């Protein structure tokens, strides 16, 4: 009798489950239609980020010869390879810091302008040009026979052309020009999110502009600046066209992306290229973690007055 009763109970439960609509079943697990909208984004991330990352990670441990760590051992035993990390950091960190610092006063000024949209459009134009077009423009403008050198020599300011391209300076200028609009837009969005009444209240109490910035704006902005720094650094660390067109690919601007490119398309060693890409990602992740951890050193209070 007991077995018969159990079978009847299970049959009743299965019958009830079959009659229950899927929408009700998902709702019982706190899954509604809005939650399902996340599914395409999750599939997108899995297909275009997680899978390539895991594929590259596994491929990096399959070298042409030697054990599974042969690629990483080769990279860190060859100064021509591991020096690319420092060469890239020497470009990415200063360019990122300059862009973030310069974007603060520019964004503070633009926030108070009436024709903010027009000026913002002008400042973001370099984003639409792309790094290759910017590099070609700089070659024409700053090259030995460019407009700048010919103008300076015409007026007798210099006797020989200034060497502004095919070196560290050319790549740095390109990174600042191409990265500043992106950094500026992020900083402007954070600054416009700070409640202006806070500064007005401080001004009525006699606080100077410098004091208002130091004690009100900067603490509320530092969280956003940290995120801005991380995004800008990741962008500049992956520099490639500028380093090739405006730098010295075999000299002091031989960045890590060039080493990965040479391994993949000149030596046809996909495993070594994957290992370099993994090292590149690890360096980026290390700097990002340090930047996000360091932001708490400047301000730990509430950030309710800003978007950061």
TrEMBL record:
<protein>
    <submittedName>
        <fullName>ABC transporter permease</fullName>
    </submittedName>
</protein>
<keyword id="KW-0813">Transport</keyword>
<feature type="transmembrane region" description="Helical">
    <location>
        <begin position="172"/>
        <end position="193"/>
    </location>
</feature>
<keyword id="KW-1133">Transmembrane helix</keyword>
<feature type="domain" description="ABC transmembrane type-1">
    <location>
        <begin position="85"/>
        <end position="291"/>
    </location>
</feature>
<dbReference type="InterPro" id="IPR000515">
    <property type="entry name" value="MetI-like"/>
</dbReference>
<keyword id="KW-0472">Membrane</keyword>
<feature type="transmembrane region" description="Helical">
    <location>
        <begin position="213"/>
        <end position="231"/>
    </location>
</feature>
<feature type="transmembrane region" description="Helical">
    <location>
        <begin position="118"/>
        <end position="135"/>
    </location>
</feature>
<feature type="transmembrane region" description="Helical">
    <location>
        <begin position="270"/>
        <end position="293"/>
    </location>
</feature>
<dbReference type="GO" id="GO:0005886">
    <property type="term" value="C:plasma membrane"/>
</dbReference>
<keyword id="KW-1003">Cell membrane</keyword>
<keyword id="KW-0812">Transmembrane</keyword>
<feature type="transmembrane region" description="Helical">
    <location>
        <begin position="85"/>
        <end position="106"/>
    </location>
</feature>
<dbReference type="GO" id="GO:0055085">
    <property type="term" value="P:transmembrane transport"/>
</dbReference>
<dbReference type="InterPro" id="IPR035906">
    <property type="entry name" value="MetI-like_sf"/>
</dbReference>
<feature type="transmembrane region" description="Helical">
    <location>
        <begin position="33"/>
        <end position="54"/>
    </location>
</feature>
<dbReference type="Pfam" id="PF00528">
    <property type="entry name" value="BPD_transp_1"/>
</dbReference>
<comment type="similarity">
    <text>Belongs to the binding-protein-dependent transport system permease family. CysTW subfamily.</text>
</comment>
